[in-house]
Design brief:
about 300 residues; mainly beta; about 0% helix
Length: about 300
Amino acid sequence: TVIPDDVTNIGYFAFYGCINLNQIVIPSSVVSIDDAAFYGCSNLTSVTIPNSVRWLGTGVFSSCSSLISVTIPSGVKSIPENAFYCCSSLSSVTIPTSVKSICASAFNGCSSLTSVTIPDSVTSIDSWVFGECVNLTSITIPDSLTSIGDYAFRSCSLTSVIVSDSVTTIGDCAFYDCSSLTNITIPDNVTSIGGGAFYIEGNNVNISDSSFDDNTAVKGGAVYIAGNVTNIFDSNFTHNSVTNLTVMEGLGGAVFLENSHDGEFARCNFENNSASVNGGAIDWHEGATKGRILN
């Protein structure tokens, strides 16, 4: 499909649900594409968006399940909410340095994405941006970033994360269910990590130089780790808490460890953490053995 050269705007729901549309060329006359313009074009494999486009609407390519790659135009300043939600074949995305923010669920459910480079211009990643990107193993977090939203990387396959020094806020459950995550570095500048920010199910987990303050969850107010060999060094845990909604909750005010062997805490500070059942600071739970706390 070729759009005429005199078109400047592609309107709301313009091609909504056009399931037989497989390719589209957008002319350089277009400056804006409105909400859900290509929503549900499930056979669309290729789209060329010219650099003349300055604005993309909410859910613009949502549920285009056959779309393989996309280059965001260099004039776009924000990737909107649900822009590529559930584009399950999307394996390549290029984000230009014009982008300042990535809005909620922009790439949620893009299960074919394996790596993403976020440019130095981006200052915020909103909630669920890369949630359920189950094959995402590599992410580059730029020095410009100041906040990571709730569930931003939930259920990704990240193995290692280095949070840049510019980040001050990590939202609730930001790395929840990242079962392959074994190493994460959080800078001193982070002043807030949301409740249950980290649920990690894996082995050889290492956390260092981190601060966890004022977090709340039902297990492990700040960190819940289910796996073998957990090492937490040079980190502070203050005013974290858990509450019990059922008999199996309310455990580990700051840290909850399940099936963890040979775990070690060294040079960590725990102050004013609380649990409604067990383990005001740490709960070594089922199957956890050989834990050590060192000065």
